[in-house]
Sequence to fold (315 residues):
Amino acid sequence: MQRILITGTNGLLGQKLVYLLLERNLTSAKQYQIIATSRGENRLVTKKGYQYFDLDITNSAEVERVFTQTKPHVVINTAAMTNVDQCEKERKICDAINVDAVSYQLRALEKMQHAEKNYKPHFIHLSTDFVFDGEAGPYSETDKPNPISYYGHSKYNADVLVEESAVSWAIVRTIIVYGVVDNMSRSNLVLWAKSALQKGEKINVINDQFRAPTLAEDLAEGCMLIADKKAKGIYNISGRDTYSILDLVYQIADFWQLNKSLIQVVSSATLDQPAKRPPRTGFILDKAINQLGYKPKSFREGLNIIDKQLKGLDK
Ligand SMILES: NC(=O)c1ccc[n+]([C@@H]2O[C@H](COP(=O)([O-])OP(=O)(O)OC[C@H]3O[C@@H](n4cnc5c(N)ncnc54)[C@H](OP(=O)(O)O)[C@@H]3O)[C@@H](O)[C@H]2O)c1
Fold:
């Protein structure tokens, strides 16, 4: 039985991974031992079918203790400081979570691997389109990163640590992840736009940044395709199509028949955000599609899934 340890399971991707593995354990012959970890209390509604550890990944001793105790075959590191402006302002904390904590995990696995010859863990690390400057998207796995925000720098620094480590590794790069999960600590583009427009609030939406939004379920599937195959190297796992943020919000409004006149078109410069954002990202997905069999849904299909989940018809 594959033991999969996931960090950051209170977050969007972390929760989707736990639910995906629980579903697979119910429906397929292949079984997983699920080790969910996040800082603080477990916020998933379903508490059965997996182990949960309160694990702050910035605590190196705790990382080593939990890893040694559970001896995972695969670690999926989803935990991160993901608020880009917060990273710009709180750089020490950003480095502690996004960079140092990655080295603690790698070090713990390297030590365990060194101590036991047959133990060969696979480390899957989540990265971002923000490692690029956004001047020449869509990007492939071999394009050279050039981050323009502190968050982007921190994620790229961690990518380099992973690439240089002695454990077997994969880096999953993704873009604007959207989805519905239990007790979320932060919203995402789809839920934010839908909720604001439904309340009749005016929203400022930028028309000069382009992204390929990623359904959280697709990202979780992509991570598990990598875990199952123990695939190595960098993989782009995002939605297929790149749109401007404005176009995405129009699509959200159209889907739920919301009032588009509440959408005020602005440029990035007028928002005056602490962190710079890459103007145009988007990914070339050929590697994931051809090597892993990754099948991303369209944005419209993603909205349909969210709609069903919000109506409680689907998990
Ligand atoms: N979301 C996106 O649009 C996006 C885009 C590109 C790349 N990514 C990358 O994809 C990964 C997953 O993102 P996500 O959307 O799932 O993010 P998320 O919803 O913000 O989840 C991150 C989780 O990490 C937890 N965490 C933070 N610091 C921790 C620590 N020191 N120890 C343990 N857990 C900690 C957070 O805990 P709390 O809930 O308690 O704060 C949160 O539950 C991240 O690596 C991110 O950089 C995300």
